[in-house]
Design a protein that fits this description.
5 helices; 165 residues; 7 strands; Aminopeptidase
Length: 165
């Protein structure tokens, strides 16, 4: 069983630890790098949690409460005001294909709806077939927009969007 929890600024160490695990596990999946984020201080992590909502997925059974997933939602610069953007979705390798990613995305979609957003969008690396499959099953469709992956400009990513309504 998994519990999805919206966390606050005082949980900055949880976000830092999970985010750094994510960057170690999947360095090519994100728009940032491990080296960059290892240099962030407490103030930066707290600012991240103040500026956008973050959710973690915790194991309920076994009842160790370990965090096995993470996601955030932002208003992406350059997007319309009625779009909410998924950032930093990651699931611990031993928890993949157990519905953790689906549950984290459901939290984002619910929050986007509560803010009366019309769409939820995200960028996914072109070679990340598992993520592309998950997003497609949940109703995200490619928009046709493409760009170089910020952390690895020799690779590209595509934008996907889910209509809410």
């Amino acid at each position: 069983m998994i519990d999805i929890e919206l966390i606050g600024e005082d949980d900055w160490q949880v976000v830092r630890d999970v985010r750094l695990r994510a960057l170690r596990d999947s360095p090519l999946a994100f728009g940032s790098t491990l080296a960059r984020e290892e240099g962030f201080r407490e103030q930066h992590w707290r600012m991240r949690l103040r500026s956008s909502p973050w959710w973690v997925a915790r194991r309920v059974r076994p009842s160790d409460g370990s965090v096995v997933g993470l996601v955030s939602m932002i208003s992406e610069p350059g997007s319309t005001s009625d779009d909410r953007h998924v950032v930093g979705l990651w699931v611990e390798p031993d928890a993949r294909r157990e519905g953790v990613g689906t549950a984290l995305l459901a939290a984002v979609v619910a929050a986007a709806r509560a803010e009366e957003a019309c769409t939820v969008s995200l960028w996914v690396a072109d070679d990340n077939d598992a993520a592309t499959g998950l997003y497609g099953r949940l109703g995200f469709v490619p928009t046709g927009e493409r760009q170089p992956l910020p952390s690895s400009p020799g690779r590209s990513e595509s934008r996907h969007e889910m209509q809410l309504g």
